[in-house]
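Known limitations

Structure tokens in this collection are predictions and should be treated as such. Users comparing against experimental data should check residue numbering before alignment. To illustrate the layout, the record for tRNA pseudouridine synthase A is reproduced below. The input appears on top and the generated tokens appear beneath it.
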Amino acid sequence: MRNICMTVSYDGTAYHGFQTQPSNNTIQDILERAIRSLTGETIKITSSGRTDAGVHARCQVINFITSSPIPLVRWCLALNTLLPADIIVSNARQVDDNFHSRRSADCKTYRYTIRCGKHPDLFRRNQEYFHPTPLNTEAMQSSLPCLVGEHDFTSFCSIRSTKKSNVRTIYAVSLECEPMDPILQSYGIHIHVTGNGFLYNMVRIIVGTLIQIGEGKRSADAMSEILAIRDRALAGPTAMPHGLMLWEVLYDNDEISS
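Generated tokens:
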């Protein structure tokens, strides 16, 4: 038996999230069916995190136990022939038996992208939230440092969350702007959030609040006030899912055996 780990990239537009659902139309369902077609095994994969319907991943990490003798160098090539064009696996490797793609992760980074300006980008419309009026990115940027550190993020967590604790540690938050596209007269705003874990809708609620700050509906100081009060009702709306992407998951390299 081997514990196999892979990186999965996907466009989540057509799927009901990552985790298996009764609809059988999730990333996990598709991956497990492809592995079953390849090996004849019915396995359950473990992921580094659950993404909602419409959310994407550049670097989702999965692992699963298999008795298949397929060489590591053949796994991705074989699976990609069975997967739809909007899901790709890469970087197959064998990991320690106790490796768990979620519990073993040191940190994760999510990226949320806003397209701000006159016209949306036709070719990136499924990965960007379009905002047709200007945003004050300086105010948005100045509101972010208060999120860094260990905090109770109840204000930025869906009331549907079932977690026992809303305390999480954010290591870094940044906002970057792309150059103005002269044809579209718009530009992309990328918000990166890196932490040891995330609550249900946490990044999307932070972004929804940031957008209101950028619109001038809230002051830049509002972010720290909302964080301190720990009341979801005081934060902004939950931003649309299609602008969110699981960007990176990092691990201790000693857990990767080959």
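For this record: The beta strands are 2-10, 46-47, 56-66, 87-95, 105-117, 129-131, 149-152, 167-177, 186-195, 244-251. The chain has two domains: 2-103, 106-248. Please report discrepancies through the issue tracker.
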